[in-house]
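Q&A log
Question type: sequence-to-structure
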Amino acid sequence: MTPVFPLSSSSFGDYQRYLSALAGNTAFDPSDEDILAEEVLASSAAEVSFSSLNTLAAGYQHLQIRMMARSTRSADNSEFYLRFNSDTGANYAQHYMRGNGSAMESANLQTSGTDGVRCYQTLTAATSGSDIYAASVIDILDPFDTNKYTTTRILTGFTGAIDRVLLESGLWMDTDAVTSITLDEYYGSSFAAGSRFTLIGMK
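Response status: OK
Response body:
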């Protein structure tokens, strides 16, 4: 886990305005974003967690996970569950839009609630080649507001055996403040070694 430091300390600090990775493309000051924690897998792992967010992320309005990841599963289109506060009840919902370069589709991935935000087709796997990782940006909006459900927005893409770009939305139907986040490989495989997960606090 890395110490907290402002992104303004990077080369980004030479510029005045940027388009935020938080969807909506609004201008932002790099000093409003901080890296809170980072996990780079030295070996495969079934899940990745960020905990103690009530203290680690105190003072931030939104959270974001930026990740480059693949699965150990021997098929492409791999996925993971995003869960909050270790809640595995049927308290989540999600939708997606997917493009492959020639066609678009959209879907609702549940009918009555699932036991995690299913992050659909967000991981490459063995068929993609050993050095190909999917890139994803996950926005977790107002996770500490106890007056509304926590919503998520995911932008992901990869190339390999197949090509995909996806925009997804998710919902945790609970008003509790988020204190932990768990990413759990959906098919019972693992996140592969070399996968990187960075938690960002956004003011």
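Response note: Residues 38-202 form a domain with the Jelly Rolls fold (CATH 2.60.120).
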